[in-house]
Amino acid sequence: MNDPASPSSRPLPGLLAETGAMLEGHFLLSSGLHSDRYLQCALLLAHPEHARRLGRDLARLQPVRPDLVVSPALGGIVIGHEVARALGVRAFFAERQNGAMTLRRGFSLAPGEKVVVVEDVVTTGKSTGEVVALLQGLGARVVGALSIVCRSAAPPPLGVPLASLIHMPLTAVPAESCTLCRQGRPLVKPGSRTEPKP
Predict the structure, then answer these.
(1) Which of 44, 163, 171, 178 is deepest in the core (most CB within 10 A)?
(2) Where are the domains of the chain?
(3) pTM
(4) CA distances (Å), 44 to each of 13, 32, 120, in order?
(5) Is the CATH number of domain 18-177 1.20.140.150?
(6) Which candidate, 105, 98, 92, 79, places its Cα nearest to that of 164?
């Protein structure tokens, strides 16, 4: 049994704070929206014991056992691997090529394979939805999506059920509505995707 004070048993908001994964400032999200807070889950998942625990926790949320886990690169790779480990299945990742999500590196799947898409943080669901569409286009049966954090006010429409370990609505607004822009606060792009085109 876990020690109540051990990192592997502490509540997720505490782990986000302790690992420095919750950042405050003026951020450009991969969706193109602006926010005063950013979840840098790479700092949380840099701790293997946290990644292993969160992977097990997410695997428990998936009602249909998949044949395969697929994650959007880059943020979903570590947690996708840990979910796959907990489920005892393979872990692939999709990456952008010429602006579109694709499977590369010899990754291939059989038509009808059951797949769950795993991401670290979901805001608008853009990357996750693109991976869902990619897999469906390849003939896979996408049985759900999982994320550590859903930071939108309501789960985004992905065409498949989304389950998250924590629902943490955070302000995210278009640039034209951003108070921090009007205050002249420097804008930081901390994520892995290139800045969206206007």
Answers:
(1) 44
(2) 18-177
(3) 0.85
(4) 11, 23, 10
(5) no
(6) 79
